[in-house]
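Subgroup meeting minutes
Present: P.N., E.W., G.H.
Scribe: E.W.

1. P.N. recapped why we're keeping a running log of single-chain structure predictions: easier to compare across weeks, and new members can see raw inputs and outputs side by side.
2. G.H. added today's entry (132 aa).
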Amino acid sequence: MVINDPKGEVFNGTSAYLKQCGYKVIVIDPANLSHSSYFNPLEEAKSDIELEQVAEILVRAGIPSGGGKDDFWLQGAIRFASLFIKCLKNAGAEKSSPALSPLLLGMGWAISPRISVILHASGEFSLSCCSQ
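Output recorded in log:
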């Protein structure tokens, strides 16, 4: 069962009852990440191949399909994202979205305010893993 509850009123009124009935109640709240469930695909990726697959999924999710006409740029973006994800892994940095944010900002990428809130929800990270 999925319940859309932007104000949290349904959760407050029914979550205890639903838990008693055996339901697993999961909250996804982008406005309050400290009390929200999440899925971090970088935590699941163990090998370089899996990291490359995560990079491809993330890039393709953010770029509309152009029917193959811009495949050169798409493949470049996938390689670029894969490079940064591997850099984080090889440096022993926390493989999380807070770690990606300063890395991308340091390369001059623009990050929208909504995404910035999610990326900066927790954790600190130094760019030293990829600086020369």
